[in-house]
Amino acid sequence: MMVVACAAKTVPYPLPPKKPVTQKLAGQDLQKFSGNYRACMTALNKASIDFTPIPDRISPKGCELKDQITLDRSRYPYSAPVIGTCEIIAAVAAWEEQVVRKNALKFLGEDIKEITHYAMFSCRNIAGTSKRSEHSKGNAIDIAGFTMKNGDKIMVLDHWKDRGKKGQFLRAVFKDSCKIFKGAMGPNSNAAHRDHFHFDMGSWGFCD
Question: Residue 166 sits in which domain range?
Fold first, then answer.
């Protein structure tokens, strides 16, 4: 294991959107990229996703970070840098096309301008357990909301229970996300997830 400083390419956010050929990720078993860094990067290249590989490293608190990349540009810009395992970023790229864009057009009649997410990496255990969180590996992402092209914001905290199109969109996104990610938790899971969707590519399969 190479131990280096936690440095990555500096990317200005938000970036202008790109139209990647993410259909090339459709139908693939994204979990096959776990432990197969080269195959994952090859798939992202074929899908026209811009990314930067990051050397393996150990965080100051001792969490091991392997097979990491920075997502430089995909279909949508994000509120903050997207840095994690190649596997989770491949899943995010597929999710943008197969879940987010599809449901935005279906329920809202227009596309997304930006996706708001919380930190992907946090060197910690799952709350109340001695098991490491997938966030401790950079193998998870927490989605807080979406900004539409017209400027409207659709936030999990504010609109999850909305009976109109915004709420329908969020609930459809969460449901369909379970087909992409290995693990998914949302406001119905517990109070800790009242304001975001947790998605990961861990070993436990759940959709709550």
Answer: 22-207
